[in-house]
Each structure stands twice: as C-alpha cells, then as structure tokens.
Amino acid sequence: MNQKFRYIHFQGVFQVHEKYISVKSGYPPGVPIYIGKQEANNTTFSIIWYDDKNVQVLSHLDPDTIELHPDKKQITWIHVSGLRDIDQLNRFFSKLALHPLIIEDIFNTKGRAKIEDFNDSLFIVLEMVNSPEEEWYSQKINIIVKNGILISVSESGDPFSTIRERITHPNGKFRSNGIDYLMYSLVDLIVDSFFYALERIEESAETLEDKVLKNPNPEIVREIQSFRHDLITFRRQVWSLREVVMHLERSESVFLKDTTRVFMRDVYDHVIKITEDLDMHREMAEGIMEIYLSSISNRTNDIVRTLTVITVIFIPLTFITGIYGMNFTFLPGINDPDGHILIMSMMTFIASFMVILFKWKKWI
Amino acid sequence: MNQKFRYIHFQGVFQVHEKYISVKSGYPPGVPIYIGKQEANNTTFSIIWYDDKNVQVLSHLDPDTIELHPDKKQITWIHVSGLRDIDQLNRFFSKLALHPLIIEDIFNTKGRAKIEDFNDSLFIVLEMVNSPEEEWYSQKINIIVKNGILISVSESGDPFSTIRERITHPNGKFRSNGIDYLMYSLVDLIVDSFFYALERIEESAETLEDKVLKNPNPEIVREIQSFRHDLITFRRQVWSLREVVMHLERSESVFLKDTTRVFMRDVYDHVIKITEDLDMHREMAEGIMEIYLSSISNRTNDIVRTLTVITVIFIPLTFITGIYGMNFTFLPGINDPDGHILIMSMMTFIASFMVILFKWKKWI
Amino acid sequence: MNQKFRYIHFQGVFQVHEKYISVKSGYPPGVPIYIGKQEANNTTFSIIWYDDKNVQVLSHLDPDTIELHPDKKQITWIHVSGLRDIDQLNRFFSKLALHPLIIEDIFNTKGRAKIEDFNDSLFIVLEMVNSPEEEWYSQKINIIVKNGILISVSESGDPFSTIRERITHPNGKFRSNGIDYLMYSLVDLIVDSFFYALERIEESAETLEDKVLKNPNPEIVREIQSFRHDLITFRRQVWSLREVVMHLERSESVFLKDTTRVFMRDVYDHVIKITEDLDMHREMAEGIMEIYLSSISNRTNDIVRTLTVITVIFIPLTFITGIYGMNFTFLPGINDPDGHILIMSMMTFIASFMVILFKWKKWI
Amino acid sequence: MNQKFRYIHFQGVFQVHEKYISVKSGYPPGVPIYIGKQEANNTTFSIIWYDDKNVQVLSHLDPDTIELHPDKKQITWIHVSGLRDIDQLNRFFSKLALHPLIIEDIFNTKGRAKIEDFNDSLFIVLEMVNSPEEEWYSQKINIIVKNGILISVSESGDPFSTIRERITHPNGKFRSNGIDYLMYSLVDLIVDSFFYALERIEESAETLEDKVLKNPNPEIVREIQSFRHDLITFRRQVWSLREVVMHLERSESVFLKDTTRVFMRDVYDHVIKITEDLDMHREMAEGIMEIYLSSISNRTNDIVRTLTVITVIFIPLTFITGIYGMNFTFLPGINDPDGHILIMSMMTFIASFMVILFKWKKWI
Amino acid sequence: MNQKFRYIHFQGVFQVHEKYISVKSGYPPGVPIYIGKQEANNTTFSIIWYDDKNVQVLSHLDPDTIELHPDKKQITWIHVSGLRDIDQLNRFFSKLALHPLIIEDIFNTKGRAKIEDFNDSLFIVLEMVNSPEEEWYSQKINIIVKNGILISVSESGDPFSTIRERITHPNGKFRSNGIDYLMYSLVDLIVDSFFYALERIEESAETLEDKVLKNPNPEIVREIQSFRHDLITFRRQVWSLREVVMHLERSESVFLKDTTRVFMRDVYDHVIKITEDLDMHREMAEGIMEIYLSSISNRTNDIVRTLTVITVIFIPLTFITGIYGMNFTFLPGINDPDGHILIMSMMTFIASFMVILFKWKKWI
Questions:
Q1: Taking chain C (364 residues) in consecutive chunks of 10 residues, what is each chunk's mean pLDDT?
Q2: Which of the other chains make 3 or more beta carbon contacts under 8 angstroms with chain E?
C-alpha cells in the first residue's frame, strides 16, 4: 500500500474540518438533520432480549413493531445500523421520548465524543475504528440507555457482533450481569478498537523514522506534516474518548453499578495507555523533523567539503600554471628542458601537502 | 480576493491593540463614552413581545415611549442597533436602572467578552462574526436580562433577524419556553458565527501550507507571521467566549432554568470544538514555519550541489589546460600532432569519472 | 528618540536585578532601611478629609501634627511623597502602629507587588508607570488602610492628583462612597498606568517586526534580546499586579464592600487584558526571532545562488579558452581565421543555454 | 559494551509497543491469558510465615497444599516466580477468590504500573529493574494483600531475597511490624531499583554529551533519538510508579497503618527525586541535540572559511597571470627581463595584503 | 577567576548525581549511614539557653552531658556542626527519641529539601549557600524542633553565628518571641543565602550574553550547556525550598504561631522572588543559545558574501584573459598595439559595474 496515499486517506477517517455550519445554519437547534458522508447507509434494526435463562435474537425487523416496554426482568438491546431512513428512525426515537438534542446528535456523524447524563437516560457518543483486516475507516457509535433498554446506533455494519455472540453463550458473564455490564462491554470494544489505530500510527512513525535516518529527501517533509495532522486529529479523538470514559468511571451515575465500575476503571486504564503512547509518538515525531533538518545540514556540509577540498587543491596549482603561461620573454626555468618536471614536482608536492592537511582535518 | 490584503483586513476585525486609555484617562470610571470605530452607526430600536399565544413586533420606534414594565406574562425583547445617539441610549438605559459599569461597557466596543451576574440582572458581552456572504468583520454584542426584559445591543445591522422570524412561528420552541431560551438562542447564534471565522482560518492555513510546500518564497514569512497574528487574536476571542459560555453552563444563575442549561451545555460543546480546531491550526501553523525553513535549507543544498558538481568537474580539466598552456619550451607531447587528442581523451575520462562518482553519490 | 537607548533605559525602569541582600544582610528582619535608587526624594505630606458634605485639603504639612484619630464620619487620606526623611516617616508610621514588615517594605522600593491583609489593616504594594507625556519611569506605590485612614506612599511626585481633584467635586462618587471606593480608585489608576507601558512595548514590537522584515541586520539580535528582557521583566510586574488585584476581588476582606467589589472586578478584567496582550507580544517576539533566522538563511541562499550562477556559466567557458590556450602545435581550427568566431559562438551558445536553464530553475 | 546495542537493548526492556490487542481481541474481559515474552518461566512457590517470635520458610512447595487461612497471628507471605503454569496459578488464585481483573492483570506482563484498592484486597502492579551486576532487564511485580496474606508475583527469579533474609533476623523491624510494613519494604526495594536505571541513563547522557562536544558525527543523531526513546519510555514507567506510590501514601486505605505511612512518604520522596532527575536528563538531552546542530553549523562555517580564504587569495593572482597570458603583441613590461619579477612582487603584495586582511577578520 | 572552572565547580556544589543507592542498598531503611562527601567534618556541639531575661551560651561541649529536659520557660537551641562522630550523634539523637527516618536523613547530605511534621516534632531539611566572601559551596542544614528544643545540624562551620549574636542582645526580638521565631530566623537566613547563588548565576548569565554578542566562538556552547546544568540543578533546589517554605506558611502546624506566620509569609515572598528571577534567567539562557546560532549563520553569511563578491568580480575578467590567451592565429585586436588598453578598459568597466551592483545589493 502506498504510504502517502495512506496518510491522506487516514486523514479522511477522523473527520476534522467539518463545515457543518453551512448545512445547519438557519435551522433551530434540536432539529434532526443528517450531517456526514454523502450518503447514509440503509437503516436496519436488530434486537436481542436476554436474562439469566433465555436469549432471543431478531434481525432486520420493522422498528414500528418493536415493543419498547418489555418484561422488566429482561434486558433489551436494540442495534440500529445506518442512518438513511430518517423518518423511520425519528418515529422509533420518539417512541423512546429521547431529548431532542440526543436525536440531533445521533444524526450528526461529525461531532465530538461525549456523554450526557439525563436523569432518566444516559447518552454516549464515541468514535470507533474498524478492525485491521479491512480497509481503514472510523464511524460514530451512539449508545443510549433508558428504561432498561440499550440502543446502539452505528453508521454502518455490525461492529458488536462478537458481543452478541457472547451473550448467547448460556453461562457467560452477560447473563448474570445487568444492562450496565452490556454498556461496559460495548465501550470496552470501542476503546480496544483504538489500539488498532495506534498500531497503524506506530508503524507510520517507525517507517518515517527509518526513512529519515536512511534516505532523507525533501518529500519526507510532506509526510511528516501529514503524520502530524494524523496525530493531532487522532489525539483529539482520544482526548474526548478519555473524557467520556473518565466521566463514566468517576460519576455517581445510577446507570453504573459498583461491580461494573471496577471494569470501567480497567477501560479507563486502557485509555490512559493509549494517551501515553500517543504522546510518545508525538514527541518522537518532533524528533523526526529535527533529524531531518540535521541531515540536510549534514549533507550541505558534505557537499561543501567536497567543493572545498577540490577547489583548494587545484586553485594554487592552476595559479602556478598561470604564472608559467604568462608571455614574459624571461621566466625562471622556462627554457630549461626539465623545467616542467621541476614545476610538476612542485605541484605534486603542494597537492600532497593539501591532501595530508585535509586528512588531518578529517575532511576527506 | 488578494490573500495578503485579506490577512491585514482580518487583523482589523478583531481589534487587539486598543489604545483606549488615551481616550478614557482623566474620566472617572462608570462614565459612558463611546470607544470604537471612528463613527458609530445610527441608533435604531426594535421590540418584540411574545407569549405562547401572541406575538407583537415593532421596529424603528422611539425608545422614550417604550414601556419597560409590561405585562409579566409576556417576554419583552428589545434590540438596539448602532451606538451613535448616546443621549437617547443613556435615557433608555437609565429607565432600566442598569449598573454604571454595564453602560460604560456597552459603549466600549473593544473590551473582552465577559459575563456579569448582578443579582437582579445578567450582562453578557460577546464578539460576533458576520455571516460569510458579506465582507468579513466582527462586532460587539451586548445582552442584558433584567426584570423579564432582554435587551440586545449590536454595533450595526440586525444580526438576530432569523431568531425574530422563528419567534413569530406559532408553535416554535420560543413560544413555550422562557426568556432564558431566548438568551440561549442568541448566544448559540453568536457561537455558531465563530465557525465562519474558523472556516476562513482553515482556508488560509491550507493555502499557506500548499504555498510553502509547492513554492516557498521569502514573502511567505510575512504571511505566516500575519496568520499567526490572526490566530493569536482569534484565540483570545475564543477563550473569552469560552469563559462566558462555561460560566453560563456551570453557574447556579437564576437566569437559566435547568431545561435550558442542557442546551447551554450543547453550546459549550461547540465552543470546545472551536477551541480544539483552533489549537490544531496553531500546531499546523508552527509546522508550516518549520517546513519553510527546511525548504530554504533544501534549496541552498540544491544550489550548492550544482555549484560543486560543475566546479569539481571543470577545475581539474582547467588545471590540465593550464599545464599545457605553460610556455615551457618542452612539455611532453606538445609537439605531437595527436597530443591534443590524447589530452582531450584524458580530460573526457576524468569528466566521465566525476559524473559517475556524483551519480553514485546521488548528487546529480 | 534612539530605539536602542530606549530599551536599555526601559530595563532600568522595572528593576530586576536587585542586589539588595548585600545591603540588608546582617540586619534582623523588620528594620526599616531605605533600599532603592541612589538618593530618595524629599519627603512631603499632604492630607485630605472628606465626607458627603465637606472637603478639606492640606499640603506640605508637618506629619508630627497630623491627628490620626479624626472624626470617624470623615475619610482621611494622607499622601506621602518621597522617602528621604526616614526618621520623620518612622515617627509617622509608629503613630499608626503598623506591623514592622509593612514599614520595612515601604522603604524597600524594589520588592514585588503584594497585598497583606492583617486583620486590622490592609497593605498593598504596587508598581506604577508614569503617564506617557514625560520620560519613562516607574515607581513603587504603597497603600495602607487602617482605622478609616488611607495612607498612600509614592517615591516621588503626586501621581494621584486627578483623584484628589475629583474628590473635591461636590457630587462625585467619592463623596457618597466609603474609603474602599477611594482605595479602588487608586488601584484603578495604577492599573491604567500599565496600559501606557503596554503601548510602548507594542510600538517596540511593531518597530522590531518592521525592521526584521525590511532590513534584517545582525544588530537586531541584540534588540530582540533587549526586547525580551523588557517583556520578561514587565510580565513579572504584571503577574504580581494580577495576584494583588485577584486577591482584592476574591478575598472576603472586610476592607471591600460588595458595591465596590463589582468595580474591582472591572479592574481585574483590565489586568487580564494586559496579561493577554503581553502574552500576545511574547508570542510575536518569538516569531520575530524566527523571521530573522529565516531571513539570514534566505540571504545566504541568495548570495550562494548568485555565486553559483556566475561560476557555473563561466567555468565551462574558461575551460574552453584554456583548451585553445594550450601550446599544442596542432589544435582543431587553431589556424582557421574564423576559428575564433566558431568557438565564440559555441561559448555564446553554452552561456545562453545555462542562462535559460537557470531561468527555468528560477535561480535568476 | 557497545553503546548503540545498549540503547536498542534498553528499549527492549521497558516494553512500549505492546501489540497485545491482536492476542486478546475476541476474548471477553477477565479471562486470564498470558501476554508477554515468548515463553514464561517455570512457576515456583515459596512461603514464609512469621510473627514476633517464630519464622518458618518453605521453598518449592506445591501450591495446592498451601493452607491459605492460617493462624491469624502470623503474617503469611507467598512469593510466586514464573508464570508458565497457568492452570496451577489459576487454581491457587481461585482459592484466594481474587477479582477476575486482578488475575487477568497478573498474566499480562505489559500493562502499566497501577494500584487497585478493592475493599477486601489491595492489588499493586509495578515494574522492577534488576540490580546492576547482571545484564539489564526489567520485570513486572504484582503484590496482592488479602486476609492477612501477602502474595508477590515476579516474572522470574527471586528479587526479594534480601527482604526474606532480613525477616529471619530475630529482632528486625519486620517481626515487630505488621503486613503493611512488609508491603512497604517490597515497594521500597522496587523504587530503589529505579535508581539503577537512572544511573545507566545518566551514564548514557554523559557519554552522549561528551561525544557531541568532542567528535560530533551524523551517527550521533541516531543515538540521541534512541536515548530519547529510552527517556520517554522510562519516564512513563516512573510516572505510573509515582501515581501508585502517591496513592499509597495519600489514600485512607485500611491496608496501611499510620506508622508505616511515614515510611511510605519517604518512598514517595525517592520517587519524586527520580522524576526530577529524569526531567533534568530530558532537558539536557534537548541541549545535546542543539549542541550537535550548532556543531554542524560551526563545521560548515570552518570549511567555507577555508574555501573562501584560499579562493579569495588566488583568484586575483590568477587573473593577473591571465592578463600576462594574453597574446597581445604589446603588453606593458612583457619584454622587460625583470617584468616577471615586478609582477611577482605585485602578486606577493596582494597575497600578503589578503592574508593580513583575513587575520584581522580572524578568518585564519 | 577562570569562568569555565567556575561552572564546573558550581556543579559540584549542588550535588545532583547522587549514586547513593550503591552505598545504601542492602541495608534496611532507617539505619543511619553517612552519605556525602568523602570525609565528614569533626562533630562539635554548642548550646544556647535564653528567655526574656537571661542568655547562656556554651560551645564545644560534650553532648552526653547535655540536659535535654531543661526548664520549660527557657528556649534551648543546640547547634551541631560536622557529621563525623556518628556514634556520639546517635547517642545524642536517641536521647531525643527522634523518628529513625529523621536520623537517617540527617546523615544523608544529598537528599532534597523537605519538611516532615510529626505530631510531636518538626523536621526541616534545607540546602544553604555560603556567603559570597568565601569560596563557593553549599551544605545541608537540618532543623529539628521537639519539646521546646531546637536542634540545628550543619555539615560544617557555624552558619548561624549572626543569629546567636542577635539573641544575646538584651532587647532583641528573639527574647520576646518563642522558639518558632528562632526557627523562622534560621529559615530566613537560609533563604537569604540563595540570593548569593542568584547573584552569581546572574553574573554568569550576563558574562555569557556579553561573550556571545561580542565574540561568539564554538567554545561558548560548552559554557552555555554548563550554565544550563547549573540552572537546572539550582532550580531543583529552589523548588524543593519553595515547597518547604510554602508548607510552613500554609500548614496549620502547631509549631508556628500566627504572629510568626506573618514573617514566614515574608520569607515565602522572597522564595517566590528567587523562583521568578531564576525563571527569567532560564528564558534568557535559551535566548543566548539562539543568539549564538544566529551569529554562526551570520558569520557564514559574511564569509560566503566575501567569497561571492571576489569570485563574481574576477571570474568574468579571467574568462576574458582566457579568450585573448587562446592561440588562434587571428583574434580581434590581438595585434593592435592599443588592444590591451581597450580590453583592460573593458575589464575595468565590468569590475566597476560589478562593484556598483554589489554596493546596491548591500553585499559590500
């Protein structure tokens, strides 16, 4: 894969330069308008009910038929993928009586990671990076917990399939834990996805450092700048992720039991680790630029040294030939048949002296 | 539009270097004196009363006839545009019994964004950027809330016309919410206006980065310095904006109901986003200077390499011609008819050797 | 006015490098010794009593006759100018029963700005810059509030004459406010004086930036370093000023009524503005050094380019002349009467080719 | 020992770039999987019981036979070395009823230092550096305190042998203090081990600084970058160590008595000292890069000066020889037998003048 | 005094690179071992009892005979100088029943400044710089306050002789104040001693700045790096000093009465001043390196300009001599007796043109 293309592509992943105001401006706040990539994916709904005894999974169902006030003993997890069908989604969200700002944020795929703790509902927005097998992209994930129902919204695909699988295992931890453990599992998976991004950044950093040490060319400045772009963008994502997880771990939210809070602290430790690794890469990236600058200086030094050595050796010799090229009728030794041998010896001596001098100065 | 002119103009927008002391000094604090652009705009008053059932709008009215203690069930919003008629404005503000420092601040169009929570009145000062269609400028907006009346003061124009329009819609959110929702809407519109400034800054940053990567010339240093000026100035505005919004969101002010505070948190999120984008642009701007410096070094390197290659090839050759230019009566091969061919071959060989050496060193 | 002289002079204003230890060492703490400029100014006392009805002003009076326990309904403000007469001042301060450390600090004109809130007395030390009409200097101002008496001490002159004038106006704010409003007015005037310093710094910054962009010469490094000295020194003064004003605004001091605290908040806003402007100038000063460094690089680049262009054009030509300068009996075309025309054409062609090449490379 | 190899090796010690996600992903949290070096060491158990009267030590025992609810009056310290036998370890840990996350963390040898205070158990993870006699490496140490039992887990070897020895001394402090003093002693030994790392870093810093001052060559950039890598990595370890020790000192944990807390404060002082020394080395490392860059500039300056001196001396002389090399039939003095002497004197004069000029300019 | 030697010596003063672990390791914590310079000074004890009426001073007494539970009305101050006689000191300290960590710290002359507030005793460790008359060194001072006794321990000499003298004055402040005033006086003297160090640093900074502006040579890099070493080391000492004094001023320690706390605040102000001055010197030191780098660039620029001017003037001239040096049988004007005059005029014209061009470009 082409390195440079990669950077540019990567930048496209974490959307920085949202110009969403031009889209939104003129509308009052709280109106759901889709902001994001050109075309949203098709909307599909899947649902899973489970308690310690039973599990029931339904895919591709009609959201209008979903019963949102189920048996309180069961945990309901509805996953929504794709944001194209705004009307259908609006009907669905209105059944949940969500705050208008939540609905607005769900449709805006370019906001920051954040957490909102309304007293009756918890709303989490996070960026998720895809697994490394596929091409590189990221998507917004929304998690809403309200009335014992967890709704997760992804821009596309089914990023939480492994968790759904684990729930169906009869004696797994999900079955004996509450809805907060499900929420924790989703957040944990999202945080883990950032390690993939970190690995790619790390690879880029090492590639860059290698390049700059072995073969520094001006093109690399562009790559270093691109890499910085990526680091800055990624860091912003990580910092807002950190805020969300810290808030989850520290807050006295009713949506998190103490037994689950211990796990959330573990997730927070992972986020700290990501932050620290990222800071390390930033410091190294600064070092790469310095190495590049020093390598340019070194090469100029090399080139100038060559110029100097050759010039300084030949200039006095050329001067001597100039003397004997003068058209004076009399010049010492000019008519001596061995005159040229004498003068050539002198020149050889001068040249040798210069070479020895430069060797001593370690210039050659 | 000329880029350089743009920067200079932009700097004029966010006024940094106020030399207002020379105007003010000698007057006691609390005396209203107009500080700002050469000439203030004409003063006009417009008023809107509304509750959940009725709306009444009056434009260009005489402020002396405004009834400031209206029916408590209605929300009164008075918008004042232009600060020229100081006497009239003073009469108007004195009817409201505002604190002398508020009145002083209203007439000073060059202060920082700030919020003052007197117990009976709330006073907000913010900078607002105009919409991108027109030429680029910014103006001070003052918002005062007291006794169920909201007074907004702008230096010129009618920046809140969209909000007035929305109020007139019969079933809009304004009609069912209090005066704090109106205040929030104004602040939201002002914060959104900063995204326009951010877009312009972003464009400038990209233009600069492109220029410096493609065609770095000394002129660009001036532009980078200008761009920094803009960033620093804009950041100051954003930081004081941030303080104001944070204070609004966090304070226990009686002027903000909890339902509206949720919206204010959303505005705060926007401000954070602006701050982060700005920080990103700052880091990139530092990178641009580094790229420029490295590009100068690179070009010097290129030039010196050319000089070295040509000099190092020709200096030994010229030395050889010098030898055979000497006027010795005897020089080896001097009288040989093919002597010059031999010597030219030797010179060709030396030149070829040098060229190969330089190719190997990747200097040519 | 000579710019360089100005910097050096300026540095003398905010005294940084106090070597006062060598003066103080050996004395126990709390002993009043004059530390400062070579010679202290003559000591003069002036007093003003006022309440809402009456004002009485006395100048150049004998401090030993001052009655320090006057009618409680009146505000007493004693201004002391000049610190030469230590004995007299000591007698005067001992009548007030001030803490020994206050008296020591009054005589030390080189300390930091600070505020001490003893329970029965408030002690403020601030640096004050003179107004811009005169030559540039700064002086220490001490303000002591105790038992309804305000004593202000200046090193020289009468910096508060405008306030004394305003007090004498019958219906001014002073007459209806307490001693805390008087204290606030003094602090406000001192803070305003810093804007003058800021204006001078701003001018210097602009001058430097202009110079470095138009005519960068090595001398400017010295000026930039001087300017930095000034900024650092000034920033220290501003930071200690900020601490004092912040303490005044935030503390629960009994010496400040709530109505006056609002004004003090306004003063604090001014100090913040000064701090921000100063930070901006610091960032710009860093930029100036970078611009200078890049301009040196650019000029080296320019010079080397000239050298290269001329050398690279003439070296091959000189080589050709060298060939035909060789003393071989036979050289192609040597005896051709038009030989020199052919060879000159060839040389013209080579030179033209080089010129075109350099034009294409944008080196000339 | 080869310096460069050392750096690279050192980097291997503090594992930064864990790509453990690819190992973990797919497993639910809380499942113990060994993450670390290719092969874990053999698992061995040793146990020591002691109180103020008796000590009993058992090595290489079968963990399945360990009685984990011993006489409450005795302190039980079990040291586990090597993590190969996962099943056996799992059986052992399950007897202690540890939290699943603790067990997971024990098997992950690449996590951050951390402390978890469950109400009934304390869990500490720290990195420990080996003593300087052997080859350089670091290992994870886990310390668990629960029900009057302290379990320490090391990746290999017996790092706490000195403490075990001291416990067996009849009147040592261990015998009269509780289990918290034992925990403190382990942490103290681990913190002390960081001084070894610090000494090695210090040596590297001094070696680098010497090199760069005496013989700066491009190779050193690589070494500086390596050194930075080490500093960054080490600092991360120190910072997480600091967090753990600070938490231990400040928390109101029931696992630490006040008498022991005083000792823990002493340990914290040591950690602060390590942090400060490290910060100092970082600042010095930045200085080294600057020195290197300035030394390149200096050397280029030296070389260019040599080039200039030689060229500027000989170019005018060569021009003069050129003049008298022209084939004009008449040139002044060309036929004078002493013409060449005159011209050579002139050339000597010019050369001497140039030399004196350069001496005066301090170029030679 | 040789500047360079001074730096190196200075570094020896504030001991940074303690390798004390190799000495301590293997011993349990709390065992007093002397860590420090090769040889400790002889131990001497002197004692002073005083109250408002009487003073009694005893020097060089036998510590075993000191009565440590004297008349409660008197203040007992024991000064111990020199740490050689460890046994005697141990006996003495054990009579006071000091915490083992205090005793350990007393014998470690390389630790950080710190303060420990045990409930019954206060322990302060500070670095003290000697007065400027003598050669430059620093030493550790320990101050212990317990049971109305103050013990001060210095590595050598009698740094507090001035205080002892002042105590003997019948009506001094010491006599009417308690033991906390004595402690304050010692700390004040130690803090004041840092101003001496600051003055030396300031001198070094000014010397360096002068050197770098007037005569920048590569040797100065080494000095700048040395100076930075000193600043970093000194700053560490100042920061730990600051922590101690801040703790003393802010804590609710029973060892400090409110009347003395006011004085302690004054000491804290001095420490802040030292910190600020130091920060200023650091910023200036960074500036010095920049100036040096810019001066190298400038000198390279100067040299290259000279090279260019000379080369560019003579290369075309030499080319013309080359043309007329060619051996063509016919060259225009070659046989004209005034040909050489014409050609020389042409060359003069070209040279003049070049000189004018360079003057215009301000290269000469």
A1: 32 36 49 64 89 86 73 85 87 85 85 84 90 73 91 90 87 84 93 87 87 84 86 87 90 83 89 89 84 88 92 93 88 84 92 93 84
A2: C, D
- As given in the structure block, the two tokens for residue B294 are 């490295």
Cα torsion C273, C275, C280, C281 to 10°: value is: 120
D265 Cα distance to chain centroid:
24
Q: Where are the beta strands (DSSP E) in D113-154?
A: 114-117, 121-129, 138-146, 149-154
What ranges do the domains of chain C cover? 40-173, 294-360
> What tokens appear for B338 in the block?
């093919």
- How far A196 CA sits from the closest chain D CA (Å)? 8
Asked if C307 reaches chain E (Cβ–Cβ under 8 Å), the answer is yes
The segment with the largest mean pLDDT, out of B195-199, C357-361, D100-104, is C357-361
Which secondary-structure segment (H or E) carries B48?
strand B44-50
What pTM value is reported for the model?
0.80
Shortest Cα distance from C282 to chain E (angstroms)? 12
In three-state secondary structure terms, E227 is helix
- Sorted by sequence, the CB contacts under 8 Å of residue A87 that are 6+ apart come out as none
Closest Cα in chain C, distance from residue B100 (Å): 10
β-pairing verdict for C55-58 and B149-154: unpaired
Identify residue D52 by its one-letter amino acid code. D
The strand pair at B121-129 and B138-146 is best described as antiparallel
3-state secondary structure of B70: coil
Distances (CA, A) of E30 to D185, D329, E24: 11, 102, 11
Q: Please indicate whether, in this complex, the C-beta atoms of B343 and C363 are within 8 angstroms of each other.
A: no
Are E40 and D178 in contact by the 8 Å Cβ rule? The answer is: no
Assigned CATH for A294-360: 1.20.58.340
CB contact residues (below 8 A), chain D span 144-183, against chain E: 162, 166, 172-173
Rounded to an integer, what distance in angstroms lies between the CA atom of residue B125 and that of residue B117?
12
| Residue C7 CB coordination number (10 Å) | 20
Residue C195 distance to chain E (closest CA, Å)? 22
Element (H, E) at D80: strand D75-81
Q: Which member of E16, E300, E324 has the closest CB to residue D300?
A: E300
Catalogue the E-assigned strands of chain E.
Answer: 44-50, 55-58, 75-81, 114-117, 121-129, 138-146, 149-154
Task: Please compute, for residue B218, the number of CA atoms within 13 A of its CA located in the half-sphere on the CB side.
Answer: 16
How many CA atoms are closer than 13 Å to the CA of A188, on its beta-carbon side? 24
Residues of D in contact with A322 (CB under 8 A): 317-318, 321-322, 325
- b/e sequence E174-189, b meaning 16+ C-beta within 10 Å: bbebebbbbbbbbbbb
Cβ distance of B327 and A324 shorter than 8 Å: yes
Which helix (H) or strand (E) segment holds residue B128: the answer is: strand B121-129
Residue range D317-350, pLDDT digits in tens: 999 999 999 988 888 888 888 888 899 999 999 9
Bridge partners (DSSP) listed for residue D143: D124, D152
Note the ipTM here. 0.74
Kindly tell me if the per-residue pLDDT of D137 is higher than 80: no
Taking alpha carbons only, the member of C227, C199, C196, C236 closest to residue C6 is C227
Angle at E83 between CA E80 and CA E85, to 5 degrees: 100
- The 10s digit of each residue's pLDDT in B261-303 is 888 988 998 899 899 888 888 888 888 888 888 888 888 999 9
Q: Which residue has the tokens 């006056």?
A: C260
DSSP character string of E92-152 = HHHHTT--HHHHHHHHBTTS--EEEE-SSEEEEEEEEEPPTTS---EEEEEEEEETTEEEE
CA distance C43 to D30: 80
The class that CATH gives domain E40-173 is alpha beta
